[in-house]
């Protein structure tokens, strides 16, 4: 006779009310009795998802593994342990570490390849079942909405307070009068007073109005969301957007997950109390649509787009264009004499900060904007003066700051240090896994430490790879000189050929990593390829040498 325990779990309140947990416990008790074991304790998690590890009963079970209170643990199925395969393997490995026996659905689990495969298959089935549960949940929510019953969607709309549903009454949105006054104020300022986003934001901050999440600073997105929210006119729409992954950055083509609006025929409207009169709401929508029609400055790629960074706060510089009036002093007065087209680069953080009230305590960036043609001419002039001449360019290369960096002995020493660092990091990561399996650190601490060690290991491996590429059997300084002359010659040739915008843009993107601008001074940062001849039994190795060129803005 062995001392046995059982673990049972259900995810939802509905399962809890239906007594699903009782049926699990009854079945496990029958299994324990049939084998002749003695049930000494029960661990039950009522209403906890199998996608998470921080469950009260499971935490207690893992603590009790270190004691002799039981010898065998019974589970009804693998998905009762966890929904995720990795979590299942982690928990079972922890149980076996403390010499406890595992019974899953009446079958003795032994840590061997066959059972590992079986557990993986069952775990995959559990993950599929979880996906089906999510699909059924979404379908149930849509059915709930089509009956005219609102959902909270996990947050409350500004101006309303969501009252959760009860067994006797459905959920409902009720007006929060304090916030509703602010909503009406925003609509009046925009639709009647014809104020812009920035002025509305400043007035809200001067009034000390907090956002829904309690923040002091407002932004265009929050104000615009309020003005476009149909809830204030009496209808709250659900099922309006879907998540897609597609390139949505016009300069870099990076894939982000973004929400796009569905066709309006798929929207589901639910009636809510009216905050803004229909006439005022319609006036605000008309002004928004008129602004869209009038807007004449679509996003356009400039010569230095996505290359310029602020030397004060580190933010990206954004190019903008607009028509400005020319003024001339006549009899002591500034008189408009014409209009000119202005294109300039400006710190993005400074643009956003201008929208906020002067009464806020934000630290403002003071880096001035720069006219586009001056910055662009200065960049090309600096490249031509510094990078076309090997003697001048050499003083900007980073290896000059550490003259012996490229010697084989130095590289071998750095390689040994990298190997030692890599081995130490791997041991520390294994120690974190052991601590987590023993329940001595939480799940969040485990995830945070693993992410840290993974990043450090990747960084060390990248350093090691670069060092391996730089091993040479000849005097490396000669190879650097050769590469430098060839690179400078190619720069001169390409500069002479750069006539069209596309050619100049491509040249800059391939030559520079970033351009740092600060108060009429620029720093051009980049790297040049380095090819090193190696011994006969090795292929040619290569690497890169970085550079920082300091230049000034011409008049």
Shape: flat
Rounded to an integer in angstroms, the radius of gyration calculated over CA atoms is: 33 Å
Structural class per helix/strand content?
A: alpha/beta
The CATH topology of the domain at 3-142 is given as Rossmann fold
Strand order of the largest sheet: 2-1-3-4-5
Could you characterize the architecture of this molecule?
- This protein is an alpha/beta fold and 555 residues long.
- Helix content is 45%, strand content 22%.
- It has 17 helices and 18 strands.
- It has helices at residues 13-17, 20-35, 56-64, 78-81, 85-97, 113-146, 177-191, 197-206, 220-227, 278-294, 348-353, 372-387, 390-394, 408-437, 443-469, 476-497, 501-511, and strands at 3-10, 38-46, 72-75, 101-104, 107-109, 160-163, 172-175, 235-238, 241-247, 255-261, 268-271, 308-310, 317-330, 333-347, 370-371, 512-517, 521-532, 541-552.
- It has a 5-stranded mixed beta sheet, sandwiched between helices. Strands 12-16-17-18 form a 4-stranded mixed beta sheet.
- Helix 7 (177-191) crosses helix 10 (278-294) and helix 14 packs antiparallel against helix 15.
- Residues 400-406 and 534-541 have low confidence and may be disordered.
What are the defining features of this structure?
Rossmann fold; 17 helices; Hect, E3 ligase catalytic domain fold; 4-stranded mixed beta sheet; 5-stranded mixed beta sheet; alpha/beta; 555 residues; 22% strand
């Amino acid at each position: 006779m062995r001392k046995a325990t059982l673990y049972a779990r259900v995810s939802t309140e509905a399962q809890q009310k239906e007594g699903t947990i009782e049926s699990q416990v009854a079945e496990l008790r029958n299994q324990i009795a049939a084998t002749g074991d003695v049930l000494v304790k029960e661990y039950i998690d009522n209403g906890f998802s199998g996608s998470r590890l921080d469950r009260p009963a499971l935490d207690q079970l893992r603590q009790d593994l270190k004691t002799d209170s039981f010898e065998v643990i019974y589970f009804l199925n693998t998905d009762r342990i966890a929904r995720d395969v990795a979590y299942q393997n982690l928990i079972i490995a922890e149980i076996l570490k403390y010499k406890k026996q595992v019974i899953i659905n009446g079958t003795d689990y032994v840590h061997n390849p066959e059972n590992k495969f079986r557990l993986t298959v069952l775990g995959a089935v559990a993950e599929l079942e979880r996906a089906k549960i999510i699909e059924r949940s979404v379908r149930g929510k849509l059915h709930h909405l089509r009956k005219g019953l609102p959902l909270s969607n996990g947050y409350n709309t500004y101006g309303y307070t969501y009252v959760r549903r009860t067994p006797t009454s459905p959920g409902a949105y009720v007006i929060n009068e304090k916030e509703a006054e602010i909503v009406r104020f925003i609509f009046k300022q925009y639709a009647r007073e014809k104020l812009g986003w920035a002025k509305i934001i400043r007035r809200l901050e001067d009034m000390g109005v907090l956002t829904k999440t309690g923040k002091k600073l407002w932004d265009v997105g929050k104000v615009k969301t309020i003005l476009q929210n149909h809830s204030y006119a009496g209808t709250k729409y659900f099922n309006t957007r879907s998540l897609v992954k597609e390139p949505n950055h016009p300069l870099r083509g990076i894939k982000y997950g973004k929400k796009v609006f569905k066709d309006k025929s798929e929207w589901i409207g639910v009636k809510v109390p009216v905050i803004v009169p229909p006439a005022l709401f319609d006036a605000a929508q008309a002004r928004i649509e008129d602004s869209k029609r009038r807007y004449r400055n679509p996003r356009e790629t400039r010569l230095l787009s996505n290359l310029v960074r602020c030397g004060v706060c580190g933010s990206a510089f954004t190019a903008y264009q607009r028509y400005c009036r020319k003024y001339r002093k006549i009899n002591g007065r500034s008189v408009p004499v014409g209009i000119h087209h202005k294109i300039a680069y400006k710190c993005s953080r400074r643009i956003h900060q201008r929208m906020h009230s002067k009464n806020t305590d934000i630290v403002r960036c003071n880096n001035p904007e720069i006219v586009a043609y001056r910055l662009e001419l200065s960049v090309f002039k600096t490249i031509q003066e510094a990078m076309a001449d090997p003697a001048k360019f050499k003083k900007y290369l980073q290896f000059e700051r550490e003259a012996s960096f490229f010697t084989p002995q130095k590289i071998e020493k750095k390689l040994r240090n990298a190997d030692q660092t890599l081995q130490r990091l791997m041991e520390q990561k294994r120690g974190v896994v052991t601590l987590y399996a023993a329940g001595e650190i939480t799940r969040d601490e485990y995830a945070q430490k693993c992410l840290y060690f993974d990043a450090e290991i990747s960084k060390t491996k990248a350093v090691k790879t670069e060092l391996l590429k730089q091993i040479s059997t000849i005097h490396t300084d000669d190879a650097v000189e050769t590469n430098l002359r060839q690179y400078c010659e190619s720069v001169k040739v390409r500069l002479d050929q750069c006539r069209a915008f596309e050619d100049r843009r491509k040249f800059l993107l391939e030559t520079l990593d970033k351009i740092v601008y600060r108060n009429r001074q620029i720093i051009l940062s980049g790297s040049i390829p380095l090819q090193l001849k190696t011994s006969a039994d090795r292929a040619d190795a290569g690497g890169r040498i970085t550079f920082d060129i300091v230049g000034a803005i011409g008049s």
